[in-house]
Amino acid sequence: APSQASVEDEPRPPPPDNPPTTPFTGPRLKARRLAAGLRREDISKRTKIRIHYLEAIEEEQFERLPPPVYVRGFVFEIAKILKTDPLQAARTYVRRYQEFLNSRGRLNTT
Question: What predicted TM-score, i.e. pTM, was given to this entire model?
Fold first, then answer.
């Protein structure tokens, strides 16, 4: 019987380098997820983070995200699954998100 192709069968790109000062961006998190052979659904099942929030984080659609305190927790959990520094990921991602909110005149809700 022919085997069904899965994400594991597809060639994976190498994960991006993450020096300690790396600012984490949505595309960087997505690249690490793809390098790990994980789908957004896999991350969602393990973290209980809704797919639309995972998409918004990876695509940096900041207007679709909840307050920074939630985003910090989401990015922290995603980074743990991706075996990268969760504190650095959460801190640098939320800093950029906060800059977006500040540019839109939103209150700092961290």
Answer: 0.79
Tens digits of residue pLDDT in 24-76: 999 999 999 999 999 999 999 999 999 999 999 999 999 999 999 999 999 99
Q: What are phi and psi of 5, to 5 degrees?
A: -70, 140
Interatomic CA distance for residues 110 and 104, integer angstroms: 15
User: Within 13 A of 19's CA, how many CA atoms are on the CB side?
Assistant: 2
DSSP sequence for 13-82:
PPPPP--TTPPP-HHHHHHHHHHTT--HHHHHHHH---HHHHHHHHHT-GGGS--HHHHHHHHHHHHHHT
The two three-digit tokens of residue 60, written as one number: 């940096």
3-class SS at 57? helix
